[in-house]
Amino acid sequence: MALRVFIAVDLDDPALVSRVERLIDAITSTGVPMKPVEPENLHITLRFIGEIPEGLVEEIKREVIERLSFEEFDLELRGLGAFPGPYRPRVVWVGVGEGADRLRAIHDVVEEGLRRLGIPPERGAKEFVPHLTLARVKGSRNLAALTKIILEYQDYVVGRMRVRAVRLKKSTLTRRGPIYETLAEARARG
After folding, report:
1. Is residue 103 a part of any domain in this protein?
2. Helix axis angle, 143-152 relative to 14-28, nearest 10°?
3. Pairing mode, if any, of strands 73-83 and 34-36?
4. pLDDT at residue 172 greater than cutoff 90
5. Residue 150 to residues 74, 75, 98, 167, 177, Cα–Cα distance (Å)
6. What is the Cα–Cα distance from 94 to 66, expressed in whole angstroms?
């Protein structure tokens, strides 16, 4: 059986989740057709892996997640942005200020572990840009209003969180959106 998996840092601080929810409310109130991320699904993706055989998932648990070693660190969520850019937003996100370098270091270790298992880099992968996806834009109605909010909040500090775990997650796609389940986690030291 194949599983759809990714490696991520979950946003599990309730106060921070509610601040992010207010940002999601602000961008969805523009009337732009979009699919916002459910509050319980908010996370920073370190590596999307995709559909792979269950046996390979077990190898990732053993060879990547269980071997991952890092110390707890603070992360600052800061600045609204969009891919590919604010004037043609397809994905609206919050960036990472402090802690971005630590996420990049963990990403590099994860990437190296996956490469050892024969899992190629993501197609079209460029430099890793740590971010928290808020919504995927589905149409162009009212885009100017969304662009205005993105530019207005480009330096906005959403809040801080302590990173204590990196998780291997399973994603089950449903009509109502994805359902995520933690398959394994690497706990930080101290």
Report:
1. yes
2. 140
3. unpaired
4. yes
5. 24, 21, 20, 29, 24
6. 29
Q: How far apart are CA 34 and CA 91, in angstroms?
A: 9
Residue 171, pLDDT > 90, answer yes
CA distance 6 to 49: 5
CATH number assigned to the domain comprising residue 94: 3.90.1140.10
Catalytic amino acids? 43, 131
Scanning the structure block, which residue is given the tokens 């079209």? 124
Is residue 168 within 8 A of residue 65, CB to CB? The reply is: yes
pTM over 0.90: yes
Give the amino acid at 16: L
Domain count, the chain: 1
Q: Which two tokens stand for residue 54?
A: 């269950």
Rounded CA gap, 165 and 152, in Å? 32
Per-residue pLDDT tens over the stretch 131-166: 999 999 999 999 999 999 999 999 999 999 999 999
pLDDT per position as a tens digit, 115-125: 999 998 887 66
Q: Residue 30: enclosing H or E segment and its boundaries?
A: none
Q: How many residues does the chain have?
A: 190
Has residue 190 been placed in a domain?
no
